[in-house]
Design goal:
The protein is α/β, with parallel strands linked by helices and about 500 residues long. Helices cover about 45% and strands about 15% of the residues. It is built from 20 helices and 13 strands. The strands form two sheets. A seven-stranded parallel sheet has the order 3-4-2-5-6-1-7. It has a six-stranded parallel sheet with strand order 8-13-12-9-11-10, sandwiched between helices. Helix 11 links the parallel strand 12 and strand 13.
């Protein structure tokens, strides 16, 4: 049997990658019963490198043939390069490939799922003696159609988000066990991923419609994001936060992306649009330009969410809303690669995505998601309903930065309300406690009264959020009552500031 040694020129595997390769390999080789396995690792953690090495070791140790499935040409190219680097030469099965007369010369096969499915429909024996199937981006349901051809073969699925793209077809139906890799936060702490700063903006997205796939429809997204207000918000936010940084902008459609290209180009910025209709040469030239231009901007739709690895990206702008946790992580993950001195990247969220789905680096119990996907999806729906009611809020980094002397920004209006209720005390006291919290925050950071009043303006979104939570608890959610609470809240803080802070006039 031919032995494929890992070349010394191949990139060195990280310690955590070695750990999971060994863990997965032990399961594949020591389990006498065929049991499909799912492996989760965040975007940027090196899933392709890991399963390429698994393929090489499996071939060497078992003598069995390996099939790797992917659903996009970009991923196919990336995987082919990883297999070549690991010294696991593969036979590509793409649309141009017909009969496999030379398949006896190969131990590893790399196929586009739709192409292979068409071949197997015509001839179930098209591909012979496969002992391990590896599925990249296993959360997509397009792979299921091919599983019955390999019902006596072990299948290893890999994904950053083990949550099926169709909630009616959970991954646990096809995979018996989930192995969880390091979390995003752990990979950041170990120095393998860049940390992120998320800037969220309170954008009004009324009128979004949900399509058959469970996400917002392209037409409803385009209607909102093509409007003057959102276009102005996008360009102003870029100028304020990201100007001069290498930036990826994700949009809802090709038409929207081209509109963004015109917007930025007219404003004098270097920007190019890229989508799935660009030919191979256009894509190559655009990505080379992006790599070599320090302040380059690419505006796109979904073509760069997978199979794209450019570690110099410094800013991700989400110029769209999504209900898909997978898409959210794929978009943000494009900025998480580390290179040289880059250990930070910026996320500008113009779609309430962080409020709807959580911050990118937030901990997710993927084992529970795998076992109970319905419960997790219900949780996301509840978050979205709260968001629609103004009951979801993430304190923006720019607000925190306005209060450098404040150590803790924790205040839970709902918890305060129900604590008072359980003690038989007046629940309106929860608002007084909130006023105290905001007043003290301003007081410890303000230089004088004018500065204090400016800081109060910065807190308006947080104040409105807290009052929304309070009125929801009391079931008194009329607009007049809310406005009355808001006015009194601000007036009380102003009154206290006038008696606590000095008035300083600049000397001309």
């Amino acid at each position: 049997m031919m032995i494929f040694e890992r070349p010394q020129t191949a990139r060195k595997l990280y310690p955590y990658q070695e750990v999971y390769i060994e863990k997965i390999f032990q399961h594949l080789t020591n389990n006498p019963v065929k049991e499909n396995l799912l492996f989760q690792l965040p975007t940027g953690g090196g899933k392709t490198v890991i399963f390429a090495e698994i393929a090489r070791r499996f071939i060497n140790q078992s003598g069995g043939k390996v099939l790797i499935l992917t659903h996009r040409i970009e991923l196919l190219k990336q995987t082919a390069s990883a297999l070549e680097e690991a010294n696991a030469p593969s036979k590509l099965i793409i649309s141009e490939v017909g009969e496999l007369d030379d398949q006896e010369n190969y131990m590893c096969f790399l196929a586009m799922v739709e192409t292979l499915n068409n071949r197997l429909k015509s001839d179930e024996c098209y591909l012979k003696d496969i002992e391990l199937v590896i599925v990249d981006e296993a959360h997509y349901n397009s792979f299921r159609k091919i599983f019955h051809y390999f019902k006596d073969t072990t299948i290893l699925g890999v994904t950053a988000t083990p949550l099926s793209s169709n909630q009616q077809l959970p991954l646990k139906d096809n995979y018996s066990k989930l192995i969880i890799g390091d979390s995003i936060k752990e990979l950041i702490e170990k120095g393998f991923l860049s940390s992120s700063t998320t800037f969220t903006y309170d954008v009004h997205l009324g009128g979004l419609k949900i399509g058959m796939d469970g996400d917002y429809t392209v037409s409803s997204l385009d209607r909102i994001y093509s409007g003057y207000e959102m276009q102005e918000r996008l360009i102003a936010t870029y100028r304020e936060k990201a100007m001069g940084s290498k930036t990826l902008i994700f949009n809802s459609s090709i038409a929207m992306s081209k509109q963004v290209e015109r917007l930025f180009s007219d404003a004098g910025f270097e920007i190019r649009h890229l989508d799935s209709t660009n030919n191979k040469q256009e894509r190559k030239e655009t990505l080379e330009w992006f790599r070599d231009t320090p302040d380059a901007i690419i505006t796109s739709v979904g073509i760069l969410t997978t199979g794209f690895d450019e570690p110099t990206v410094e800013t991700i702008i989400l110029n769209r809303a999504t209900r898909s946790l997978t898409l959210y992580h794929q978009m943000v993950g494009r900025g998480s690669r580390k290179i040289g001195n880059k250990d930070q990247f910026m996320i500008i969220d113009l779609g309430n995505n962080a409020r709807r789905l959580g911050l990118w680096q937030d901990y997710i119990d993927w084992q529970d998601v795998f076992v109970n996907p319905e419960r997790f999806l219900e949780h996301l729906v509840e978050r979205e309903e709260k968001l629609d009611k103004g009951l979801m809020y993430i304190l923006p980094e720019e607000v925190k930065s306005s209060f450098p002397k404040t150590d803790s920004f924790d205040f839970d209006m709902e918890e305060e309300y129900y604590t008072l209720l359980s003690k038989g005390q007046k629940t309106i006291e929860a608002i007084n406690l909130s006023v105290d919290d905001h007043f003290n925050r301003i007081l410890e950071n303000a230089e004088d009264l004018f500065h204090g009043l400016d800081l109060l303006k910065v807190l308006q979104d947080e104040i409105k959020y807290r009052l929304s939570v309070y009125t929801n608890c009391t079931a008194k959610s009329t607009k007049n009552y809310f406005n009355w609470l808001l006015e009194n809240y601000n007036e009380e803080i102003k009154r206290r500031l006038r008696t606590s802070l000095p008035i300083n006039f600049d000397e001309d």
